[in-house]
Design brief:
Number of domains: 5
Radius of gyration: 30 Å
CATH class of the largest domain: Alpha Beta
CATH superfamily of the largest domain: Glycosidases
Structural class: alpha+beta
Bound molecules: beta-D-galactopyranose
Shape: globular
Length: 851
């Protein structure tokens, strides 16, 4: 190896810096990239939010991100999970930030710590503690003393904690950059002059923390030096940082999207994700973060809103349950491998741009040493094309980029997915009763039940004329607020004789409401993820004499972002009864009596000693379709070791716990049949969240993740609070199982894979595209469900033959794959009949059963 004088100099400098700062690393940057201990870096980062999974999952998630080709883990810091009340800090369990960062360190990865501490993130109240809204004089996120005081205090607390544990790279830890604030640039102007002052203050306050690594601000177009401004979006190839000395950083590339109860299920096709990432790197980017790489779960009441689902799966490369999502995870892993092959050229090479057509271009990176890497892009969102580059021709599918690590051979094309897909099922299993007493009937599940009375329990909070704001009243200590009154109905009301029910007409700022009259549920109403306020007309049954009206007002997660978002209220604004002799009665002028929360919540009936509360009554038959009912059962864990989801399809709406751990809100609310779902997603062209949705007319969320580590070997207390009525006997645990794997391989797929690149002769002529299948660990291919070489159609799980089909396909694939845990099938003349349907590009589709 020949070292130039320059590089020897650099080596000594790096060594000196290392010694000078103890065992820490020197993290700096220039316009090209981050430079760690003198080395330029391509940083591929994976967002994994620690409280959205459990500590038992962290090492596996981090490892899977590393295996997927990431070298950085990113997380926000969740202020409201840590500072429960002023100066009352919590860092245990899912909030053990230090443990999480150390796991990242042990995996040999870097960490991007986005402290915020305002974070948005579809997290309750954007991560800011609700109590801070009630500290007099506080206005969030602007030049305001109480806000700045508490924000600085928390930021300093986190920085000190990280420093104490030596977690900054400057101290030898993994944290190589930190973020202050979050996308403030969007809102700065809406805060007037104070907005700008606040942004500058935040940057200065951050820098003054002296963390020894760079600070970033995302979507902040006036971030002052040395704070680096970064880009968030579905695409960031056009982004340029303000300072010409800063590298081009993409802090949030959304490989999917979040869901709200009652909406469709969004998906972002991996071909488009890969296209966006590749365009970013070929256009000079060097730091890129998938937001999210593992979305996880909004346990308990951490989901923001209104209406964000408990699942935060995000269609991310690792699914909510911690399994790699194929083909997304696999296709991106290959992409990262392809970047690795181009790393030197990308980080040290000179870039030249060549036009290859009206919407086609090449980015070529060459080094003086002769190292060369090229990216051939087809930005046309409709038409495939053939381009000429350095006297060779290349086929480029529409909206795709080919990667040529030697400026000659294609190792990867963003639109040609070689990675396997998988068939993932939620396999139901009946709840298994726990053996607690040998005297009991062991076959039937023992249910204990506590039914709440609608309306005020124990002492009311207060009474007043008209309505109060829901959030200002509950301070978000619970979702629930009882709002009650009574109405006297004369015996001579016409509706009593005619049997026409009067109508209760309600208006609310949000989020949801159940109407009880004389202890009976009359109906429910709610807003949705797009429009939070709602108005509803609910027929009610009234009797002659005094009627008790009890309205259960609910929040479903607090606002997470937007200008002055903390002032957005919730709760009833008007109630009328229509259809009485005198027309409408305006109940808004009545005296209303309020009670915060439910009795069961007050008694902590779902955890600790509350589980033994005398309110629980043993029953042989738990009541069905009964509103306001708490259910408790002692269960064994589901068999096996697959991840577990609680199937709540037969329930209404409510909250669930296991062993006192908060599973979260459940609500199998359906999206509309008439929403815009797609059977097949066209990856071509710019993505937006509604482009490729599925699940119209289906519950947005049916299964609720219950981490395996929450189960004991027996005697697990499953507690459900059901608001409107459901059938608890139909509740199941479902196990998330990969039952099969698929491959759809085209003969024109790059024949050199990322893995074979270093050893490949790079003589493409004698290499053939190869399909690869791998069953999950401890399983083997037990059957070939489908195999067709020709022009098969459809997707994994629903392939069908086209008009061109080699009848021997199945036997060829069986010979190579049956009883194996993995297999490769070359698309060669030896294996398949290339003679039929000449002139067509042929494909091999395989679906294998793994067991
Ligand atoms: C961004 C925000 C993130 C997250 C994301 C959508 O605007 O910075 O925190 O909310 O949108 O998932």
């Amino acid at each position: 190896m020949k070292l130039s004088l320059m590089s020897i100099h650099c080596l000594f400098l790096a060594l000196f810096m290392k010694l000078a700062v103890g065992y820490g690393s020197n993290v700096s940057y220039d316009s090209r990239s981050f430079i760690i201990d003198g080395q330029r870096k391509l940083l591929i980062s994976a967002a994994v939010h620690y409280p959205r999974s459990v500590p038992a999952m962290w090492p596996g998630l981090v490892q899977l991100a590393k295996e997927g080709g990431a070298n950085v883990i990113e997380s926000y810091v969740f202020w409201n999970g840590h500072e429960l009340s002023p100066d009352n800090y919590y860092f245990e369990g899912r909030y053990d930030l230090v443990k999480f960062v150390k796991i990242v360190q042990q995996a040999g990865m870097y960490m991007m710590l986005r402290i915020g501490p305002f974070v948005a993130a579809e997290w309750n109240f954007g991560g800011v503690p609700v109590w801070l809204h009630y500290v007099p004089g506080t206005v969030f996120r602007t030049d305001n003393e109480p806000w700045k005081y508490y924000m600085e205090k928390f930021t300093t607390y986190i920085v000190k904690l990280m420093k104490k544990e030596k977690l900054f790279a400057s101290q030898g830890g993994p944290i190589i950059m930190a973020q202050i604030e979050n996308e403030y640039g969007y809102y700065e102007q809406s805060y007037g002059d104070g907005g700008k002052r606040y942004a500058m203050w935040a940057a200065k306050m951050a820098v003054s923390q002296k963390i020894g690594v760079p600070w970033i601000m995302c979507q902040q177009w006036d971030a002052p030096d040395p704070v680096i401004n970064t880009c968030n979006g579905f695409y960031c190839d056009d982004f340029t940082p303000i300072s010409s000395n800063s590298p081009k950083i993409w802090t949030e590339n959304w490989p999917g999207w979040f869901k709200t109860f009652g909406s469709m299920d969004p998906h972002r096709p991996v071909e488009d994700v890969a296209y966006a990432v590749t365009r970013f790197f070929e256009n000079g980017g060097s730091v890129h973060n998938y937001y999210m790489y593992h979305g996880g779960t909004n346990f308990g009441r951490t989901a923001g809103g209104p209406f964000i689902t408990t699942s935060y799966d995000y269609d991310a490369p690792i699914d909510e349950y911690g399994l790699p999502r194929f083909p997304k995870w696999g296709h991106l892993k290959e992409l990262h491998g392809a970047f690795k092959l181009c790393e030197n050229a990308l980080l040290f090479g000179e870039r030249t741009n060549l036009s290859l057509g009206p919407l086609q271009e090449a980015s070529v990176y060459t080094e003086s040493t002769g190292v060369c890497a090229a990216f051939l892009a087809n930005m046309d969102n409709k038409t495939d094309t053939v381009v000429k580059f350095r006297n060779m021709t290349y086929h480029l599918p529409a909206w795709s980029v080919s990667i040529l690590p030697d400026c000659k051979n294609v190792v990867y094309n963003t639109a040609k997915v070689g990675s396997q897909a998988s068939v993932v099922d939620m396999v139901p299993e009946d709840l298994r009763p726990s053996v607690v007493s040998p005297k009991k009937d062991l076959k039937a599940l023992q249910w204990e039940v506590f039914v709440e009375k609608p309306g005020i329990w124990e002492k009311p909070e207060f009474s007043k004329t008209g309505f109060v704001d829901h959030i200002n009243t509950t301070k978000d200590t619970t979702d629930y607020l009882w709002v009650t009154t009574s109405l006297y109905v004369d015996g001579d009301e016409m509706f009593l004789k005619k049997g026409i029910p009067p109508i209760l007409s309600v208006k609310s700022k949000g989020h949801a409401l159940h109407v009880f009259v004389n202890q009976e549920l009359q109906g429910s109403a709610s807003g949705n993820g797009t429009i939070f306020p709602f108005a509803s007309e609910i027929p009610i049954s009234l009797k002659a004499g005094k009627n008790e009206i009890a309205l259960l007002s609910m929040t479903v997660g607090l606002q997470t972002a937007g200008p002055q978002y903390e002032w957005i209220g919730a709760g009833l604004t008007s109630v009328e009864i229509k259809g009485l002799n005198n027309g409408n009665v305006n109940l808004s002028k009545f005296t209303w009596t309020y009670k915060i929360g439910l009795l069961g919540e007050h008694l902590n009936i779902y955890k600790g000693d509350g589980l033994k509360s005398k309110n629980w009554v043993l029953t042989t038959e738990p009541p069905k379709r009964k509103p306001l009912t708490w259910y408790k059962a002692l269960v064994d864990p589901p068999s096996g070791n697959e991840p577990v989801g609680l199937d709540m399809i037969h329930m209404g709406k409510g909250l669930a716990w296991l062993n006192g751990e908060e599973i979260g809100r459940y609500w199998p609310r359906k999206s509309s049949k008439h929403d815009a779902c797609v059977d097949h997603c066209d990856y071509r062209g710019k993505f937006s969240p509604n482009k490729c949705s599925t699940g119209c007319g289906e519950p947005t969320q049916r299964w609720y993740h219950v981490p395996r580590s929450w189960f004991k070997s027996s005697g697990n207390e499953l507690v459900i609070f059901e608001e409107t009525g459901g059938d608890p006997t139909q509740i199941r645990f479902s196990k998330r199982k990969t039952s099969g794997v698929c491959s759809l391989m085209s003969e024109d797929h790059p024949s050199i894979s990322v893995e074979s690149w270093t050893t490949a002769t790079k003589d493409t002529n004698d290499k053939k595209a190869t399909a690869q299948l791998r069953c999950p660990s401890n399983t083997r291919v037990s059957a070939i469900k489908f195999a067709s070489f020709g022009n098969p159609m459809g997707a994994c799980g629903s392939y069908s033959h086209g008009d061109c089909h080699d009848p021997e396909s199945a036997s060829v694939v069986e010979k190579m794959c049956l009883n194996r845990s993995e297999c490769s099938i070359e698309l060669s003349k030896e294996n398949f009949n290339f003679g039929s349907c000449p002139g067509k590009i042929k494909r091999l589709a395989v679906e294998a059963v793994c067991s």
